[in-house]
Amino acid sequence: MNKLRFSNLWLTIGCLLVILVIGATLMRSIPYVPYFRGVDKLGHFAAYVAITFWFGLICGRNRVRWTIAMGFIVMGMCLECVQRMSSYRTFEYADMGANAAGVLCALLLVQTRLSRGLAVVERSLLRLTQ
Question: Average model confidence (pLDDT) for the chain?
Answer without folding.
Answer: 89
